[in-house]
Amino acid sequence: MAKAKRTKSASERASESRAAKLAAGYVSKSLLLPPSAADDLAALVERDDCSEAEAIEAALRVARDRNAEPSNAELARMVSRRLTERRK
After folding, report:
1. Distance between CA atoms of 23 and 19, rounded to whole angstroms?
2. How far, in Å, CA of 29 to CA of 63, rounded?
3. Residue range 35-68, pLDDT digits in tens
4. What SS3 class is residue 13?
5. How far apart are CA 73 and CA 46, in angstroms?
6. For residue 8, what are the contacts with CB-CB under 8 A and spacing of at least 6?
7. 0.85 cut: is pTM over it?
8. What is the three-state SS of 47-83?
9. What confidence tens digit (pLDDT) does each residue in 8-20 have?
């Protein structure tokens, strides 16, 4: 008589998924968010109908794209340096 295949519990499936992600290079972070940031994260999750991890990943992607160009402070330093070099 063949045994019925045992169904894995949600906890077992979650553990296996976590182990697979860690093996694939995912990094585990534990964060303490200030209340305003937690509210912003909750609003993003609700607005975009996504997980907290997906919302954080999207926000970091936007920040990374914005960092591709120099910030105003970086531009000011570059101009200051060039003006200083011309005076020499």
Report:
1. 6
2. 19
3. 999 999 999 999 999 999 999 999 888 887 776 7
4. helix
5. 34
6. 16
7. no
8. HHCCCHHHHHHHHHHHHHHHCCCCCHHHHHHHHHHHH
9. 899 999 999 989 9
Question: Which tokens in the block code for residue 4?
Answer: 């019925």
Distance of CA 47 to the CA centre of its chain: 17
Show the tokens assigned to 52: 């907290």
Structure tokens at 33: 């968010």
Dist CA 57 CA 48 (whole Å): 12
Query: Where do the structural domains in the chain lie, given as residue ranges?
Result: 32-87
Which residue is listed with tokens 């910030």? 71
The Cα–Cα gap between 53 and 17 comes to 14
